From TrEMBL:
Keywords: Lyase. Belongs to the enoyl-CoA hydratase/isomerase family. GO terms for molecular function: enoyl-CoA hydratase activity. It comes from Edolisoma coerulescens. PANTHER family: ENOYL-COA HYDRATASE DOMAIN-CONTAINING PROTEIN 2, MITOCHONDRIAL, ENOYL-COA HYDRATASE-RELATED. The keyword Lyase applies. SUPFAM superfamilies: ClpP/crotonase (SSF52096). The keyword Lyase applies. One of its GO terms (cellular component) is mitochondrion. GO terms for biological process: fatty acid beta-oxidation. This is ECHD2 protein.
Length: 216
């Protein structure tokens, strides 16, 4: 079982290219079906039970950024280029961009970025909360990937089921009012109480040693 999923810039670039090339050959009905499938794919990625990290070392434009937005965490090189550029091509974001970007950076800023089709770099993206971390690019061109790897190494030692329930509580709670969200948190917490990992965490605290979580 894997505990964390990485997506890197090569995927975002290939996704954008394939997206535009495929759409250019389609009639109206085919475009609608194509975008519906893309939207479903993004939803499936967002619903994965493990943490997902997007490492953006190059470009994440259009559908590429929508793919990154479907991830839990995003890390970008300061020189990376990001944007929902669909309006510059007579389109609008159709694979979750109009919904996930406002939840990430706020409604006003999301509208500005989508209406203008503006491209921003990693530092700008970090300042507005679009990415969690922005790092200077290195000579190998994989600075974001390396920072994402460090982030994953911080996550991996933690109790897998507790992380899973934490993600579920946040994701579901963001879709409802705070009272309903608190109820969701309570249900997720209750599922974690009987786990062996919770018992191990408490035992490790009492015994002043690092916990050894097994995901059970």
């Amino acid at each position: 079982q894997f505990r964390c999923l990485f997506l890197d810039s090569n995927i975002f670039i290939l996704y954008l290219g394939a997206d535009l090339k495929e759409r250019a050959k389609m009639d109206d009905a085919e475009v609608g079906e194509f975008v519906r499938r893309l939207r479903n794919l993004m939803d499936e990625i967002a619903a994965l039970p493990v943490p997902t990290i997007a490492a953006i070392d190059g470009y994440a434009l259009g559908g590429g950024l929508e793919l990154a937005l479907a991830c839990d965490l995003r890390v970008a090189a300061s020189s990376a280029k990001m944007g929902l550029i669909e309006t510059t091509r007579g389109l609008l974001p159709g694979a979750g961009g109009t919904q996930r970007l406002p939840r990430c950076v706020g409604i006003g800023l999301a509208k500005e970025l989508i209406f203008t089709g503006r491209q921003i770099d990693g530092e700008q993206a970090c300042s507005m909360g679009l990415v969690n971390h922005s790092v200077p690019q290195n000579s190998e061109g994989d600075a974001a990937y390396q920072r994402a790897l460090t982030l994953a190494k911080e996550i991996l030692p933690q109790a897998p089921f507790a992380v899973k329930m934490g993600k579920l509580a946040i994701n579901k709670g963001m879709e409802v009012d705070i009272a309903s969200g608190m109820a969701i948190e309570g249900m997720c917490y209750a599922q974690n109480i009987p786990t062996k990992d919770r018992q191990e965490g408490m035992a490790a605290f009492r015994e002043k040693r690092p916990p050894r979580f097994t995901g059970k």
